[in-house]
């Protein structure tokens, strides 16, 4: 079975209605795996798979479980390769929150990404808190998870600012990946800041 076929089976499985309501759908799972691929500390497979589903799904068979879990691991590796490569990582959704941000795929992707960050939140901010916070900002804004906070509410009101932030997400992912996975390349990436 090709990777594309595996992915479409994974997508059908994750987007089915019978998963736990807190389980991540395919788009959110992609965001989540992207965060795990960037995370400075590897998270054990069993832990992140269990967290993705919130509670064990009802698999039809052990073979189905093995296939779904293997495809998730494969997808995470695929995302890591994209992040480490020359080209910008591709998101499985448009870089646009649309008229109804809460219903947009991008919001789902960003929520999934933040779920991945929350698995190891302290580790993300350990080494380069300012840079990581700055790079994560577009994803945090697009996730809508922080809209209660005044500075996020203020950004959310500025549609043009939100749009320009959202468009930066692919390059932000590459920068985060280099920052956490290849820190020796860091100086060239981050421009000096003028306060």
TrEMBL record:
Superkingdom of the source species: Bacteria
Coiled coil: none
InterPro entries: YgfB-like, YgfB-like_sf
UniProt-listed NCBIfam families: ygfB_yecA
Listed name of the protein: YecA family protein
Organismal lineage: Bacteria, Pseudomonadati, Pseudomonadota, Gammaproteobacteria, Pseudomonadales
